[in-house]
């Protein structure tokens, strides 16, 4: 005999949503919430069901309070300990495992950021699950869409794991807004997971007053055509300032030392999808396109009319960048 009542109940979408519960991992740096990580909450909302947010670090109460204001979040789990400040995965993974076990979540979601990529596979492995990486869409609670082969093919994957561990592409899920939500804040389990196997020594961050590359609405990127770091700075930075844009770079420009590694756009750099992406002296190699081809408007300046970048550009200017960019910057200054 089959219990058809239960089967019917399980098939109903509303009943299914009631069974779903997602934990969104939120990032913080030095006591400040990384609002980009609120994309994980947007993804959790698309799943439906209960949504909890997770934050950890020292003096975490302000970050927890800010996160609790995101509409649609039911609860924020906060763990206050300096052991989790830098997100060292050796410490953070057992912390998450303890809290996931307690919460009984069906989905655990983090951004496909350096933090998420470092952490989630370890957590998934500890709970004997397979991670689903860098998704761009959710079809249902077990079916997800993700680009593969540097965005040249789109795979639809289905997971039968009891807990789905997912990293999401930030450009596909806009960050949830901090509004007037009133989630409860609960102290999470602290397994005192400071393994001491790794130690945070130091960090050397490129500080800039310009908009953040990953979230800016305008990006100007320079490539090998800029010829040197001096020329990159002389030509690209005034253009960025005239447009109020973030600065990006191709891998060739980064490898040649023209720009900082954190500015690299592409398959092995950042994935951006701004309103305007301007590629200057960039040929448009497939690995670069993988990081910017979803931009709303793509403009390119290149002296080679056959450069592949023009195949994806909405607006193209064939010419010498050393003439064209200063001219454009000057005109923007007057506009
Ligand atoms: P080039 O291909 O050398 O192009 C320079 C362009 O500048 C040319 O089109 C030229 O016509 C133009 N130019 C030169 N002088 C002028 C001038 N005076 N005025 C106007 N135009 C001028 N690349 C990335 O960018 N990001 C990645 O994340 C990335 N990941 C990779 C991962 C792997 C596994 C591999 C194998 C490669 C990866 N690459 C990546 C490298 C990629 O294949 C290209 O080598 C790189 O993108 C080329 O950079 P570029 O366009 O600046 O240089």
From TrEMBL:
Binds 1 FAD per dimer. CDD domains: ETF_alpha. GO terms for cellular component: mitochondrial matrix. GO terms for molecular function: electron transfer activity; flavin adenine dinucleotide binding. It is found in: Mitochondrion matrix. Keywords: Electron transport, FAD, Flavoprotein, Mitochondrion, Transport. Its cofactor is FAD. The keyword Secreted does not apply. Transmembrane segments: none annotated. One of its GO terms (biological process) is fatty acid beta-oxidation using acyl-CoA dehydrogenase. It holds the Pfam family ETF. InterPro entries: DHS-like_NAD/FAD-binding_dom, ETF_a/b_N, ETF_a/FixB, ETF_alpha_N, ETF_asu_C, ETF_asu_C_CS, Rossmann-like_a/b/a_fold. Residues 22-204 form the Electron transfer flavoprotein alpha/beta-subunit N-terminal domain. It comes from the Eukaryota. FAD binds at residues 224, 250-251, 264-268, 281-288, 302. Belongs to the ETF alpha-subunit/FixB family. The electron transfer flavoprotein serves as a specific electron acceptor for several dehydrogenases, including five acyl-CoA dehydrogenases, glutaryl-CoA and sarcosine dehydrogenase. It transfers the electrons to the main mitochondrial respiratory chain via ETF-ubiquinone oxidoreductase (ETF dehydrogenase). Heterodimer of an alpha and a beta subunit. This is Probable electron transfer flavoprotein subunit alpha.
């Amino acid at each position: 005999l089959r219990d058809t009542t239960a089967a019917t109940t399980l098939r109903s979408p509303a009943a299914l949503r009631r069974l779903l519960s997602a934990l969104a991992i939120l990032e913080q740096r030095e006591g400040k919430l990384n609002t980009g990580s609120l994309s994980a909450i947007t993804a959790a909302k698309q799943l439906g069901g209960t949504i909890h947010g997770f934050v950890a670090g020292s003096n975490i109460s302000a970050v927890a309070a800010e996160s609790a204001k995101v509409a649609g979040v039911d609860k924020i789990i906060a763990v206050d300990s300096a052991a989790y400040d830098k997100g060292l995965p050796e410490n953070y993974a057992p912390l998450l495992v303890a809290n996931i076990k307690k919460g009984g979540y069906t989905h655990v979601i983090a951004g496909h950021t350096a933090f998420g990529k470092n952490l989630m596979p370890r957590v998934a492995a500890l709970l004997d699950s397979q991670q689903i990486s860098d998704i761009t869409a959710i079809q249902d609670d077990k079916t997800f869409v993700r680009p593969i082969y540097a965005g040249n093919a789109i795979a639809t994957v289905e997971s039968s794991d009891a807990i789905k561990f997912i990293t999401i592409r930030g450009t596909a899920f806009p960050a949830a807004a901090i509004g007037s939500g009133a989630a409860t804040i609960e102290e999470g389990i602290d397994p005192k997971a400071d393994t001491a196997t790794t130690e945070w020594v130091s960090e050397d961050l490129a500080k800039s007053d310009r908009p953040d590359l990953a979230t800016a609405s305008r990006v100007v990127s320079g490539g090998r055509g800029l010829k040197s770091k001096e020329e990159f700075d002389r030509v690209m930075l005034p253009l960025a300032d005239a447009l109020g844009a973030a600065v990006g770079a191709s891998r060739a420009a980064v490898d040649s030392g023209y720009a900082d590694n954190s500015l690299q756009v592409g398959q092995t750099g950042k994935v951006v999808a701004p309103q305007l992406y301007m590629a200057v002296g960039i040929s448009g190699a497939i690995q670069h396109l993988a990081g910017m081809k979803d931009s709303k408007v793509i403009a390119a300046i290149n002296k080679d009319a056959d450069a592949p970048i023009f195949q994806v550009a909405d607006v193209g200017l064939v010419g010498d960048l050393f003439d064209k960019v200063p001219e454009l910057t000057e005109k923007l200054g007057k506009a």
